[in-house]
Amino acid sequence: MKIVMFVHNDMTMDVRVQREATSLAAAGHQVTVMARPRDVRSQIGETDTHGAYAIVRVPMPGGWRRPWSVAQLPGRVINAVVCRLQGRQRTRSTGPRPIDFMVKWRFAVLGWNARAAAAAPYADVYHGHDLSGLPAAVRAADRNGGRVVYDSHEFFVESGNTALQPTWVRQRLANLERRLAGRSVALITVNETLSAILGERLGVVRRVVVYNTPASLEVPAGDPTSARANSPLRAALGGGDGPIALYHGGFMANRGLLTLVQAFRAPVVDGVHLAFLGAGPLAGELRRLAADPAFGGRVHVFDAVPPSELLAWVAGADVECMVNAPASENERLSTPNKLFESLAAGVPVVSSDFPERRRIVMDGATGPLGAVCDPADPAAVAAAIAALVNAPAAERNALRARCAEAARTSWNWEHEGAKLVALYADLAAEGAAR
Asked: What is the pLDDT of residue 88?
């Protein structure tokens, strides 16, 4: 079949979309991904190939920044008036003001979706990634014919800045999602709990769970112990065999990063180094904290690395930390990429004690793959890290081997991608019959 995907980013770091497009192309489908330019201000379209599929980067609507910035003025006035009427000081929300947020959605997100849909070629299936790509899939299907598949990477209306918006804003987006998802013939999600919740809310019967797991070919060569010793992470820290706790991913609120730093003030993790690998709004704050003499140079912040190099860096750690705060339903339901990337690299995890994560980390058939803890308690986080890195060497090596084996046998893209390919085989058969 001809498949066109829509994703509201530049595809540079979106490994899930890259893996999906690669698997479908390898199965014989003709795949095109509609994305944004690398430079969001560029008005020049880009077309290139990534392996066996094509990427068409559609520019953002010209001038969208101007109406968004103009809309900030009435938002500030409204905020000031409301605060004055309530007899309190003016406050600044941790997220964008509702009017700013909605204007950006109207001009930037939906504007790009309209452009991407207009530029999309004919396809048998239009595949929308997240709510920020679904409108384009539906518009293209309405214009050209074809069916729609909705691929929800997270609980979108309860994620990121959207989760910080008032109920009326989130409800408007939820209504949009429900209306557009009603056009889809299948819903793809990232774990079983999210599949059940979204399936019921959106009314989509056919659902496929595709976990965000890396492929076997991405795993560092050699056994987990040798990959640890040869990791660029250890080289960046000056070599040595000391214990390292790692966080990799976005430096954003609700990821538990500041709690993690606070946990490293506890005596039980003396001698353990804490490394952050990634990028995001909290990068400056993390670097400021890393310079605090109280840590004795044990906290480090590194820039993000390309996806092709990531697992080699992760393999150098003794434990991966993902202590997301339960600030939204999306966080509590999350099974992030880094969980499966860590297992693939043979690195045990310390995770928030959320249901889906507990099932993977603690309830596997071969035994625990790390530990879970209360993400709001720095002492509990520190104790969980210490328990793993201070275990006898034989236990640590066995745990690393168990993590790698779980990735080889269960949590890998060969297994997960096959479910996506099977869905599209069914859609192709149905299309032929129709």
From this structure: 46
User: 334: which DSSP letter?
Assistant: -
Helices (H), 230-268: 232-236, 257-263
Question: Residue 169 is part of which domain span?
Answer: 2-213+414-433
pLDDT in tens, 38-73: 888 888 888 888 889 999 999 999 765 655 455 455
Give 57's strand partners: 35, 46
Torsion angle in degrees (nearest 10) through CA of 9, 15, 21, 23: -170
Order of strands across the sheet with 184-189? 46-50, 53-57, 30-35, 2-6, 125-129, 147-151, 184-189, 207-209
Residue with tokens 């003001």: 97
pLDDT in tens, 84-119: 665 544 434 456 789 888 989 999 999 999 999 999
**Burial class for 68, CB neighbours closer than 10 Å (0-12, 13-18, 19+):** buried
Same domain, 9 and 111: yes
Structure tokens of 308?
């092709």
